[in-house]
Specification:
Layout (H helix, E strand, L loop, with lengths): L3 H6 L1 H13 L10 H6 L18 H10 L40 E2 L7 E2 L8 E4 H6 L5 H5 L5 E3 L15 E3 L11 E4 L2 E2 L18 E7 L4 H4 L7 E6 L6 E9 L3 E12 L2 E12 L19 E13 L4 E15 L6 E17 L3 E20 L8 E20 L3 E2 L3 E21 L9 E24 L2 E23 L4 E5 L3 E17 L2 E12 L3 H5 L2 E3 L2 E4 L7 E14 L4 E13 L2 E5 L10 E5 L2 E14 L4 E16 L17 E11 L3 E10 L2 E2 L7 E2 L2 E13 L2 E8 L7 E4 L3 E3 L4 E11 L1
Parallel strand pairs: 6-9, 26-30
Antiparallel strand pairs: 1-2, 3-8, 4-5, 6-7, 8-9, 10-11, 10-41, 11-12, 12-13, 13-14, 14-15, 15-16, 16-17, 17-19, 18-19, 19-20, 20-21, 21-22, 21-23, 23-24, 24-27, 25-26, 27-28, 28-31, 29-30, 31-32, 32-33, 33-34, 34-37, 35-36, 37-38, 38-41, 39-40
Subcellular location: Cell outer membrane
Family: Belongs to the TonB-dependent receptor family.
Keywords: Cell outer membrane, Ion transport, Membrane, Receptor, Signal, TonB box, Transmembrane, Transmembrane beta strand, Transport
């Protein structure tokens, strides 16, 4: 229960508590299998975990923000138009455009060809989430926002609000989901995937500083190397212009409160931005009611982010930049001994030189230092007690650099624009694990240290060839080399005996081509096609670190090789400006060789592992994605989007029983419907429906999880000047559905409601 003093200080908190109590319905039409439907009672968030730290600072800060007086903002300054290499600006196919001033959102993208250009001219299919949609989304976390694109999904159905960081991997178009992301996530061109495990700390990416999110769901290794096997998602920061202040302050049920702020200032040629975000939540009971025991409680979590960026126009042609940030996240998996914590610091520097005749040069340097800690419990079947099973400490760091050159256009039977670049990255980390065996003995394993270093580098070149305005051809080629070295495992037993295993250094390489075609026979009709080769090198986590989910222990494999992908896509986009209608359909076919998967073993390993990471033969992932973006009227817009995926194991040496099985954690059907009303004088409101089909938890397809559909809503209204009141509800009808079945059935989030205040672009 919230402290009385805080309730008096922040009246909005009381209002939300009353609001949540009034609208919380009972569970209906649960999205679980038939057996679970008969056994799971309604899920209500009715208690607060006693071991959660109370919000002692958040409520007074919210009250202070609500009580502040906002000054009128001056007219916005003109923004520099991105360099499009002489091509005329055109509207990109964005997810939402609801007012005249939003028309410029998404004009240019940078991810499809590593340079700014109109999205409708890029041969690859790109989905853009512009700033207005980011601001209006009912979702609380970044991963939930990205998942509103049906082609994008995280490994598990739970959001990062309660999901362990190691289960936050991203996949696009259903390409073999796992805790390790098979897609690359960038922030202004800098990779943010964890250097040790490849997963993404979504909560380290505050949305107040974002201008747009670009999703390219096709093999991107020809431009970005390892990690871009299934595509690229890039978060693009807002420009630093004028003097601005943005802030969010929200509070909701499950005692979830958030404060976020972004400030911008300019001093002549120097400009700077500072972002901060604080979030604290009690979470919800994650174990299904049918299996919940005495040890199960809520899933509390908290995080803090602080990011800074400075840019300097050294000359008219040279821009220098620097950035740094701190992030900390604490999570509890629902029991006292199931915890995770992340601490990281990142830094970067860059330079952009524009020359009259030699093109543009962009240099980026970046690095990260981090520590991931995780405790896992040993829990009996009735979940009546728990004991500490393992405690892991994983320090890791990485350093990298990239140099990209975009040349001026030149003519040879049409117009050519060359882009070339090189990059290098060093990643190192160690998993230090203390084990607590259930039956202590002199030979019991007590300490396990495993880790190593991975060096990687690549060089690429791309030519965009435009014989005529109606036709564009693209060709890209990249060579990558990576080396795993210093791999070592050290085992110490209770009697003091130590065994050390050193793994052989290995060097591998990969050539990644990509060909693309864009044809525009009519002004409103665009045809696209591309074929590509992509790859992903195994992460240090997959090579060396074992992990446990529920009661299932999965072993690492130091002999893993790279995953490799052949793929193609073809699509059509039709746009009618007079009707405000844009329709897109894209078909895709991917063949994934040697995918790294968690394979169920016929016999457990000596350490009790029942699964192990292996390169599993071959999988075929084919499907189609479609979307309709329609401006119904001046205030109304609608979006319908759907992705169908057919993910099947086609070859499995040593595990023939897996052939024909559906890939785990990979639903065949995903869809989104969004309806938005926007009138600045009345209200801005969004209703979205998210539908996910049935899927399997495991590779043997023995643990099914039913499909589900949830409705989210949000609304905001300007109070005065730049201050807005805002409210949002995720899972409006409190739909109960399974999120995982790894030894214990876990649930997706119930109804989560919040209300708060927003300050936008104040001077």
């Amino acid at each position: 229960m919230t402290q009385p003093g805080l309730e008096r200080a922040f009246s909005i908190g009381r209002t939300v508590a009353t609001f949540c109590g009034a609208i919380r319905p009972t569970t209906w039409n649960r999205g679980v299998g038939l057996l679970e439907r008969a056994s799971m009672p309604d899920l209500l968030v009715t208690h607060r975990s006693p071991h959660v730290r109370r919000i002692r600072v958040l409520a007074p800060l919210l009250w202070a923000l609500a009580s502040s007086t906002v000054m009128a903002a001056p007219a916005p300054e003109a923004q520099e138009v991105p360099d499009t290499n002489g091509q005329p600006p055109t509207d990109a196919p964005t997810r939402e455009r609801t007012e005249a001033e939003d028309a410029d959102a998404g004009r240019t993208v940078v991810t499809g060809s590593r340079r700014p250009r109109p999205a409708r001219d890029v041969p690859a299919t790109i989905t853009v989430l512009p700033r207005p949609e980011i601001d209006r989304s009912p979702t609380l976390t970044q991963d939930s926002l990205v998942r509103t694109v049906p082609s994008a999904a995280t490994f598990r159905r739970t959001p990062s609000l309660v999901s362990d960081p190691t289960a936050q991997g991203l996949n696009l178009r259903g390409l073999a989901p796992s805790g390790v992301a098979r897609s690359l996530v960038l922030l202004d061109g800098i990779p943010v995937n964890d250097p040790f495990g490849g997963w993404i700390f979504w909560r380290s990416l505050p949305r107040l500083g974002l201008e747009r999110i670009e999703v390219v769901p096709s093999g991107g290794s020809a431009l970005y190397g390892s990690g871009a096997l299934g595509g690229v998602v890039q978060l693009v920061s807002r420009d630093i212009t004028g003097t601005q202040l943005d802030a969010d302050a929200t509070y909701g049920n499950a005692h979830t409160g958030m404060l976020a702020a972004r400030g911008v200032q300019m001093w002549g040629p120097v400009r700077a931005s500072l972002e901060a975000e604080l979030l604290d939540s009690d979470g919800y009971p994650i174990v299904s009611a049918a299996q919940r025991g005495a040890i199960d409680a809520d899933t509390p979590s908290s995080h803090a982010v602080l990011n800074g960026r400075v840019e300097v126009d050294a000359t008219d042609a040279l821009t220098l930049s620097a950035r740094a940030g701190l992030f900390r996240e604490d999570q509890n998996g629902g029991t006292r001994l199931t915890t995770a914590r992340v601490e990281l610091a990142h830094f970067g520097a860059g330079a952009r030189l524009r020359t009259a005749d030699g093109g543009t040069f962009t240099l980026d340097l970046f690095g990260r230092v981090q520590r991931f800690e995780q405790d896992r419990a040993r829990i009996p079947q009735d979940r009546s007690s728990e004991a500490l099973a393992a405690s892991q400490d994983v320090p890791a760091n990485d350093q990298g650099a990239s140099l990209v050159w975009t040349g001026p256009s030149w003519t040879a039977l049409g117009t050519h624009v060359l882009t070339a670049g090189l990059d290098a990255r060093r990643m190192t980390g160690t998993s230090r694990e203390q084990l607590f065996p259930p039956a202590p003995s002199e030979t019991a394993l007590r300490l396990r240290d495993t880790g190593g270093t991975q060096l990687s580098g690549g060089v690429f070149i791309e030519d965009l060839y435009t014989p005529s305005p109606a036709l564009e051809l693209s060709a890209a080629l990249r060579m990558d080399v990576w080396r795993n070295q210093d791999g070592e495992q050290r085992l110490e037993r209770a009697n003091g005996a130590v065994a050390t295993t050193r793994f052989d250094d290995r060097t591998e390489q990969q050539l990644s081509p990509r060909l693309g075609l864009r044809v525009r026979p009519l002004e409103g009709l665009t045809l696209r096609a591309s074929a590509y080769r992509a790859f992903r090198a195994p992460t240090l986590n997959e090579l060396y670190r074992p992990f446990q989910v529920g009661t299932l222990l999965t072993a690492a494999n130091a002999h893993l090789g790279a995953e490799r992908l052949w793929g193609a896509e073809a699509g059509v986009e039709a746009e009618s400006s007079s009707r405000g209608l844009t329709t897109r359909v894209t078909g895709f076919w991917n063949v994934l060789d040697d995918p790294i998967t968690n394979v169920t073993l016929e016999q457990p390993l000596p350490d009790g592992s029942t699964r192990q990471r292996e390169n599993l033969g071959q999988a075929r992932v084919r499907g189609v994605e479609a979307s309709v973006d329609w401006r119904l009227a001046r205030q109304w817009t609608a979006l319908l989007a759907y992705t169908f995926v057919d993910p099947v194991v086609t070859r499995s040496p040593g595990q023939p029983g897996l052939v024909g099985k559906q890939l785990a954690q990979d639903p065949r059907h995903r869809g989104t419907a969004i309806l938005t009303f926007h009138d600045p004088d009345i209200v801005t409101a969004t209703v979205q429906l998210r539908v996910t089909g049935a899927q399997f938890e495991d590779d043997l397809n023995e643990r099914p999880m039913g499909g589900y559909a949830v409705v989210d809503v949000s609304a905001s209204r300007r109070l005065f000047w730049k201050l807005h009141v805002f409210g949002a509800v995720e899972n409006l009808f409190d739909r109960e559905y399974l999120a995982g079945r790894a030894g214990v059935d876990t649930l997706g989030p119930p109804l989560l409601a919040r209300i708060g205040l927003r300050l936008r672009d104040a001077p």
